[in-house]
């Protein structure tokens, strides 16, 4: 996540020595970050509980958007700024309300009577996870420039597990969850030309734009010349190449583990970690100038490959029996617990570092995403009855070619003619979430452009807490309303 023209000490939490893994602090930070994410997720759940399908059928899309905005977006803004101390309290209240909802609707008895559970060709869990990643990232990239932003959420310079450390990692996970391995040279070429290259070109365009307007880029995040678009594009490029050599989805696991282990060995025993983190190393060559972005790529590639396999395993079918659904959720819960335990162990063993995308960081990303996927499936696919009322006439397996074409469109959104797009709801009944999914890249670009404009014209560091929160809400209203208008008109650009 980029921060624009802001001092290094104000952006990063900098340890005294680059060898300090800050193990216990990282665990504490990861829990704090999780509560911030859960606060935004709770807003989505609250919006779905209030705007039931019966109610939304009587309201116009614009009214639904106006009702959803304070429920979905406002908590995300408040709980990273002036109300950051109360995110855990908000989550606790939402848990209590959820239990009340379960008791009032007798959801448990209804679930037991359900013979089939339709997760759909567009799983709700992926829709919510993808949209939350966009939503939280867009809030943070501007909020960090204001004094009201909670310093505990700022990026870690070397080791740490803060909220803003999650951005690029969760984008890679989501990109992997909706992707598949290329099975032929034609598919590999399509992955490279239609997925990886546009991201790399956006990275180049961003560099040119920043140079043209003389807008600063923090060299300690991705390097002097690289940025998040390069990381995503190169991850997609090399991930597709590695995936091409896997003959089955299962083979993605050993390939990913091999890449990750080799990456961690190089970081720990090859001196790469010290080289990347040492400020005394001069940035005289392209490699040294961009060492953060370059040497983190293997870790992100491993994370991407693991995410592809995980998505294939989790959503292997679109319709599950009661026994299959409970078994899947039980297995996913075990993965959630295992990931958090491994994250705690890795925090002491190798540390958690976004700047190198090491083993600890990869495990942490999976801990977050698996947690959110489990919660979304339990709440939306089990507790909220609308998801279970969808027609059971969709493909029974995600092996269906059409489904993967749609998944790739979710990932890049570049192939579908805007005039022929039909809105296909994932079942969230949340217009803001659906809008972010339909035009995620457009939303992210608008957020970045708006962030630059605010920094140039409004001087955020000079704003009071009240003014900063007001500006953030206006900014979020503008960018979310823009993609909502595209969604309402059934226009998918990217």
TrEMBL record:
Segments traversing the membrane: 31-51, 63-80, 86-103, 124-147, 159-179, 191-213, 225-245, 252-273, 293-311, 332-350, 362-384, 441-458, 470-487
Matches recorded under PANTHER family: PHOSPHATIDYLINOSITOL-GLYCAN BIOSYNTHESIS CLASS W PROTEIN (PTHR20661:SF0)
Family per similarity comment: Belongs to the PIGW family.
The protein, known as: Phosphatidylinositol-glycan biosynthesis class W protein
GO CC entries: endoplasmic reticulum membrane
Top-tier EC class: transferase
Biological source species: Drosophila mojavensis (Fruit fly)
Keywords tagged on the record: Acyltransferase, Endoplasmic reticulum, GPI-anchor biosynthesis, Membrane, Transferase, Transmembrane, Transmembrane helix
Compartment(s) where it occurs, according to its Swiss-Prot or TrEMBL record: Endoplasmic reticulum membrane; Membrane
Reported function: A acetyltransferase, which acetylates the inositol ring of phosphatidylinositol during biosynthesis of GPI-anchor.
Keyword Acyltransferase: yes
UniProt membrane topology term: Multi-pass membrane protein
Alphabetized InterPro entries for the sequence: PIGW/GWT1
């Amino acid at each position: 996540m980029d921060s624009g023209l802001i001092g290094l000490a104000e952006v990063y939490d900098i340890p005294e020595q680059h060898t300090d893994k800050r193990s216990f602090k990282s665990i504490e930070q990861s829990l704090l970050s999780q509560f911030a994410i859960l606060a935004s997720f709770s807003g989505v759940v609250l919006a779905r509980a209030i705007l039931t399908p019966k109610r939304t059928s009587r309201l116009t899309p614009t009214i639904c958007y106006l009702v959803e905005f304070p429920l979905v977006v406002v908590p995300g803004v408040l709980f990273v700024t002036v109300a950051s101390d109360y995110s855990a309290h908000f989550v606790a209240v939402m848990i209590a309300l959820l239990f009340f909802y379960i008791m009032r609707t007798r959801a448990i008895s209804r679930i037991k009577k359900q013979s089939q559970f339709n997760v759909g060709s567009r799983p709700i869990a992926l829709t919510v996870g993808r949209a939350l990643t966009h939503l939280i990232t867009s809030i943070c990239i501007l909020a960090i420039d204001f004094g009201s932003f909670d310093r505990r959420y700022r990026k870690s310079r070397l080791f740490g597990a803060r909220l803003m450390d999650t951005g690029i990692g969760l984008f890679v996970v989501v990109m992997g969850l909706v992707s598949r391995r290329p099975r032929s040279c034609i598919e590999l070429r399509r992955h490279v030309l239609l997925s990886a290259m546009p991201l790399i070109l956006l990275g180049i365009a961003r560099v040119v734009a920043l140079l043209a307007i003389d807008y600063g880029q923090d060299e300690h995040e991705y390097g002097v010349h690289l940025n998040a678009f390069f990381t995503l594009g190169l991850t997609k490029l090399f991930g597709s190449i590695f995936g091409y050599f896997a003959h089955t989805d299962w083979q993605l696991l050993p390939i990913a583990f091999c890449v990750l282990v080799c990456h961690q060995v190089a970081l720990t025993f090859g001196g790469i970690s010290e080289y990347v983190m040492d400020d005394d190393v001069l940035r005289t060559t392209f490699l040294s100038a961009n060492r953060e972005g370059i040497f983190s790529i293997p870790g992100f590639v491993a994370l991407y490959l693991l995410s592809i396999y995980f998505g294939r395993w989790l959503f292997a079918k679109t319709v599950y029996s009661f026994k299959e659904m409970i078994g899947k959720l039980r297995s996913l819960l075990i993965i959630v617990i295992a990931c958090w335990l491994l994250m705690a162990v890795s925090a002491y063993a190798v540390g958690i570092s976004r700047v190198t995308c090491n083993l600890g960081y990869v495990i942490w990303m999976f801990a977050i995403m698996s947690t959110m996927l489990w919660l979304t499936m339990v709440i939306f696919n089990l507790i909220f009855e609308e998801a279970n009322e969808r027609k059971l006439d969709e493909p029974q397996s995600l092996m269906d070619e059409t489904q993967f074409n749609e998944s790739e469109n979710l990932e890049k959104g570049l192939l579908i003619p805007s005039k022929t797009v039909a809105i296909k709801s994932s079942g969230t009944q949340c217009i803001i979430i659906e809008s972010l999914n339909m035009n995620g890249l457009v939303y992210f670009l608008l957020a970045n452009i708006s962030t630059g404009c605010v920094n140039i014209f409004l001087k955020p560091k000079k704003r009071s807490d009240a003014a900063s929160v007001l500006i953030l809400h206006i900014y979020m209203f503008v960018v979310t309303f823009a993609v909502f208008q595209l969604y309402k008109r059934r226009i998918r650009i990217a």
